[in-house]
């Protein structure tokens, strides 16, 4: 490693290289980067206990490549002008151009380290940032006790001054009323004594005030420095994060704009030395993120002469043509909806500009549902309505209910589970958090044959229960708890809970859960959403399974964006169908006719090779309505979800005032109502918590909140409790008896 270092002339002997301050030093050093590039020439600047390095002197104005804090660094001197700095478990290998230059750097680094350590332990008057940033709690507690003691002294002096002042006033009054000269000497003596006491007490009061003011000023200066330091650090951190985000965004744009003309595996040698961030690259083994199988079209011989390694050929004969082709037209419900005369547009979204980062920067690490947000970042739908929007492609379940083969049925159920994400591709608005007890109904018996009811059953954590009954042979129910975190540059939304689907005729009971959703570019750039993770669908009756993989979006991947792949297997683990597509466009299924183990390319790990029949379309996304970009990118179903209905419950999301005002474009008024509703809900929660505490203190049974239309039941298979529909909503609607409903709006 040392043999490749060439001796470079050092400019540090010039006046530009050295500063009058012993804690400031700058100059060229060779820094070890990686085994491909070896040592690289970098411009180092030592100042204020920090060693920073840049590619060139010109970069000092805008781009720092790294910073090393000397307060905790270990300095080791090696041979041939070699220095090793160890900080935070990382080693920095540096080389100077000569022994003299190396000694200069060692002396400067050691002096800067000593100064940095000394500054960490300085007294309050030193103005050291590290000490100010992390004040000693014991010292702060002692200062508060001293101030309290001085306040007690002031209070005592105040009482004494009042007492002695009143006595002096009485003595002066008696002296004025004195008529007999013989008593004058005694009275005058008493007045002098009381005046002396008053003067002593006043002096004590003045001294106590002076001590209190001096002590308060001393600690005030210290606390002001602490506050100023924290402000500067916060401002610096915000600028750094914003700069990093802008650099990241420019890199993303540059990658998109660069045509990928070079063949896979070739090196772009012309770009090696010009990349911005390649000097400290660490190399890792490639992660096994690709599917564990490969599909190839089956030959005529494979289609007719082989059984597919145990796959039952009778499956092919039972596969009706209308399962994959005729029924692949998923526009039936869409056409019925248009015939029904439901609305097809809403008022255009106003063009209000608001900096999301200005609101979110104080909320890093918090749960998203606890962050107060203006409606500017919402869409005029509640989370209950977004759950109901999963039924956009309910005709997939209608088709699945008519399937004789359970594996074919599994394919359609898998396509349905993927289709629920298709409406989110452009939807970066946050749905309204439902109020506790808020409901949402969707009656589509006429168009689609189902009725849906949702209720918010918990506020913290936010949880919603959903139940759908279809006249076309299926029932769906779910309880979803949203766990969301803001991570600085992106927001992660993790739905917890399971979705259950029961087909009436066969008794097939399918269970699955949702994947993680991520909203990117919170700080700068265009917001975009992605879904990633795995979905495991299980048929509890037959034990058939389907494993779906949502691949995270990557600028550097050659795969189709938003790719989804899956395998449908029977209870013995034997694969029968391959699913492929994308969650924003379509899903296809291909029947497996033969499988084998093989080695693909130069990979060491063997993958299963499936020979399949030509794929058949399971589901394709509906086109967005005209002018959708100005209507929050709502789908045709989403445009109707907030349309008023007759006879709905008073707790229905359609009646929420802030949501309706936002849809109408009155965002300022919507923000006022949103704040009012949230404050009312906070007060209600505090009232329930107070009642719970009183009940616990008195030893009484705590009355927990009970949803109106759902109740908790134990799952006989998983032994987990979840909310299921208890019934009664549609009967209450028919009678128009909403006396049980709370007033929440």
The number of distinct β-strands equals: 27
Structural class of the secondary structure composition?
Answer: alpha+beta
- Count of runs of 4 or more consecutive helical residues: 16
Backbone CA Rg: 37 Å
Q: Ends: how far apart? A: 72 Å
Shape: flat
Helix content: 25-40%
Beta-strand percent range: 15-25%
Write the layout of secondary structure elements.
Blueprint: E1 25-34, E2 38-47, E3 50-54, E4 66-69, E5 74-77, E6 82-87, E7 90-95, H1 99-120, H2 129-133, H3 137-176, H4 184-257, E8 293-297, H5 300-305, H6 314-318, H7 321-324, H8 332-340, H9 356-360, E9 378-382, H10 383-388, H11 395-401, H12 406-419, E10 430-432, E11 439-444, E12 450-458, E13 463-470, E14 474-486, E15 491-496, E16 499-503, E17 509-512, E18 516-520, E19 528-539, E20 545-550, E21 563-569, E22 575-582, E23 586-598, E24 607-612, E25 616-620, H13 636-641, H14 657-663, H15 667-698, E26 710-714, E27 721-725, H16 729-735
Parallel strand pairs: 8-24, 9-10
Antiparallel strand pairs: 1-2, 1-7, 2-3, 3-4, 5-6, 6-7, 11-12, 12-13, 13-14, 14-15, 14-16, 15-18, 16-17, 17-19, 18-19, 19-20, 20-21, 21-22, 22-23, 23-24, 23-25, 26-27
Helix pairs in contact: 3-4, 11-12, 14-15
Short characterization:
The protein has 745 residues and is of the alpha+beta class.
